[in-house]
Amino acid sequence: MSSLILNASTALGLAGLYFLLASGLSLIFGLMNVLNLAHGAFFAIGGYAAWWVMDTLEIVSSLGLRFVIAVAVAALAGLVVGALVERGLVAKLYGKHLEQILLTIGLSYVFVALLGGWFTYDPRLMTQPAWFGTTTEIFGANIPNNRLLVLAVAVVALVGLLVFLNRTRHGLIIRAGVENAPMVRALGIDVGRSFTIVFALGGLLAGVGGGLAAVYFNGVSPSLGTAQLIFAFIVVVIGGLGSVPGTAVAAVLVAFTQVFANNYLATGLGSISVVVLLALVLLVRPQGLLGRAGT
Amino acid sequence: MTDTATALLTIEDLNVWRGEAHILHGVSFDVPRGQVTALLGRNGVGKTTTLLALMGLLPGSGSASMSGQELVNGETHLNSRLGIGYVPEDREVFSTLTVSENLRLAERPGAEHRYGLVYELFPDLAIRPDQEAGTLSGGQQQMLALARALLNPNELLLVDEPTKGLAPIIIEGVVEALVKATSETTVLLVEQNLTVAGDLATAAVVLDQGSVVYTGGMQALAGDRALTGRYLGVEVR
Amino acid sequence: MKRVYPILIVAALFAVAPFVDVGIPFVFGTEIGSPGTLLVLGIALTFAALAVSYDILFGYTGMLSLGHALPFALGVYGTNLVMIHWGLPYFAASLVALVGGVLIALLLGSLALRTSGVAFAMVTLAFAEAFAILVLTDPLRIFGGEEGLPIAVDHLPDIFRGVVNTRYVYWLALLFAVAVFMLARLVVTSRAGRVWQAIRENEPRVEMLGLRPFAFKLASFVIASAIASAAGSVYLLLIRGANAGTTSALFTLGILVMVVLGGTGKLWGAALGGFIYGILDLRLSEVATSDFIADMPTWLGGPLSEPLFILGVLFVLLILYFPGGLISIPGQLRKARSARRVGQ
């Protein structure tokens, strides 16, 4: 029983990471029709930002506080990079969806190589508050606290994102734009600004995800994002492109499939099982769980 | 013929391509201020294309100027802010947003939001503000699309086939609303239903194969069997 | 048949490479005829063939597959595994791997084609990644994991063994590339090829004409995968083993880069892109580890020592300014020059 709880909490933590990475991707695609292959790099950039803060900001003696700052810096780094990439590069290829995708591919090479060139490809261990390494007892199982942390942050992000989308004007514009961007323009609204907001938001979420991933995986390396990006894609497709609730549900589904397959079938079969899950969803409901038919 | 002094919108030599196809060939006509002008013609002749070009949703060459501002190749949201309300052919309401959210989105900052007028014209919308627009009936969606365009005090309304696919009794309601709403607004109305066009419009422009073949009064056109037969393929009853 | 002449001339030029004693400084480390450079050329030619196969799928049919490394890797690993475990000689093993590749392409293609556009891209990427993970984690203990599988030398014909016989491997690669090019040209100029292009332009219209896009798209997918699989068999011979690099996301995206680099829409554009990518990929690592770069300060030298950085930056610049690829550059420059002359 306790191993079940442990696996479930591991899966929930992983689901949190997938959600943070995939939600931005889903929105960017839903609104702009851009497949942002540089998204994994945003993740890695966030991871390195957090690592760097933990490593250098020794004037903040409390590791817990330092970690909060680290995540904030990671979020900021992701936001800035996301906004700059959109404003400076993606926007220049307005309307040319294929070129935009190709651009993000080139950028993913550049960012990963940049990180590798500066920090080398060896994984860097991250200084962490002691509390992360300890466990909390829940229903008789000892859950590592870092899993709980990731889950908590992801839930906060989910709620924040839903509030933003459903209660603010910007969110309203984005939700409408995901369905029909030209009509939003015809109402006199500059959707281009929303493009930048969505990219920045995606970058922020990925940055936070990267900072937390550094904790979850106990280290950061330039390929941190690329390894997880593929799972993020699968989550986006299963959840339905452009749907935040769909991404949340799919993240849980994918993470549980992966963790439980790895533990109860055989190590290494987790990823294959996820792909099988993808194939099943494609057969039964190609638009994704909460996606609109015809997308 | 209207003289340009009383024209709100002057279109000159408008050429629009869709891919390789040359849809509009040097279209020129005026849209007189304060009246409803019907834009007529058979299917595929370029009526919707004209509206799209005016909204900057399709690129083209030539000129379409409204109050001194050029619309052709303009940025859609900027064209809209000049005071144009656009009601597209397939309504294009945002199906995942509620009725009130659809209207809220249409609120132009700094302009008056005429909810009173809109709810008076379309009481059906007033009673269901939180209903998802995708679950509305065809007629209700059409009313929502019209409401969006009427919410702000727009100078020009571009309305594309508002009665398409609607049952006759619904059409009556839409026409009634349009008559009330457009008593002093300038409207360019694309319509296939000639009876509706006849009820609403005072001026008419007929397109055939991408060119203008008639401009003049709506009633004069309606009474001319030869014209309607040749260019519209049907009689006005 | 007149159009065959250019390709035959190019083939003839490449065929004499093993006899050339001079080198091209900076581009190659040794003379063209040396085994090292012949291998580089051979790999570049194989990439050219791979790029042509992708052009059929992406350039002509408009299907953005991000998983084209999968059939290629299947060819590399499959051929080697069949030689090792079933003892078949090289060419027979390649054939078996090809058949396997086609069957898998049929299965995966049918699944993936339930989506289109970006979802299709993500799904194909997912499938390719699944294979990459399978190879790395190697639960069945057959793939050799990160180290890969050295080639089963015993099952190679004598003519392909040993460094002295590199020229024969090179000529095989050349023959293969030429054959692929001519086959591809035949296929894209056929009726099916025209339907593919119609699908790329306007799929709903194709349906309205009474044709079934799904069947044509699947055919395009399978043909492209078959060629890629065969290319994998040739690649195995060139690099003397199967390694996980061919399954990576980097490589599968690299195939897209190859075709975009050269320019879609013309088969020889894709071939050029694949060829240049191959040269760059192999030779940039040389530049990266040179003293010139090592003497730079870390913040500059670090990234510059990464071949991917240079490639990535070049690619980004290409997309921004010459999205039509290398073959579009002369045309665009000509247009710019004449525009200036007219005084615009």
Question: What is the tally of beta strands of chain C?
Answer: 2
Main sheet summary of chain B: 6 strands, mixed
What is the CATH domain class of chain B? Alpha Beta
User: Unreliable segments of chain B (pLDDT under 50, ≥5 consecutive)?
Assistant: none
CATH architecture classification of chain C: Orthogonal Bundle
- Described by its quaternary structure, the protein is heterotrimer
The structural class of chain C is mainly alpha
Give the largest interface pair and sizes.
Answer: A-C, 47 and 46 residues
Q: Report the helical percentage of chain C.
A: over 70%
Q: Strand-residue fraction of chain C? A: under 5%
CATH H-level superfamily of chain B: P-loop containing nucleotide triphosphate hydrolases
Arrangement of strands in the largest sheet of chain B? 6-7-8-3-9-10
Which structural category do the helix and sheet elements of chain B fall into?
alpha/beta
Which spans of chain C of ≥5 residues are poorly predicted at pLDDT below 50?
Answer: none
**Mean pLDDT over all positions of chain B:** 88
Q: For the terminal residues of chain B, how far apart are their CA atoms?
A: 24 Å
SSE series of chain B: EEEHEEHEHHHHEHEHEEHH
CATH fold-level topology of chain B: Rossmann fold
